[in-house]
Amino acid sequence: MKKILYQIATVLQILLIITAYLIQTLSMKKMGVMRFIVYMNHTWNNLYPIDKFQHITITILAILTVIILIIFFKINKNGTVLDKVALRMVVLLTIITMVSVIFTLGFSTADYRSYYFISFILAMVTLIQDIKISVYLRKLAH
Fold this sequence. Notes:
The protein has one domain. It has 5 helices and no strands.
């Protein structure tokens, strides 16, 4: 059952990344998509404190990643890696978190019209990876 949920989570991550790519591509090629995205950007800017949300999200994702890294290193106290899968998952988590943080801090709606959508999708992918590695490390610790 857990293996099926893990595979579903991985497929969901891949679908979210494909969705982000498609939204960005269509926002550059299709006028209707571009108008919708520009409208949503203005609506969200007027309704919500987007900058605060972004900083809170980045902080939460970074803290979760640091906690998972600490747990991973506590499990591997003597310096030897007990589980290669856990190591790959932790490295992937670190890369995904870095990409999400760099994209969110380094770009804006002036650079990418679909910036808010992509930032949200990257945060979701990072959160799913956090959950996957947390479950795996918990299983590994017991």
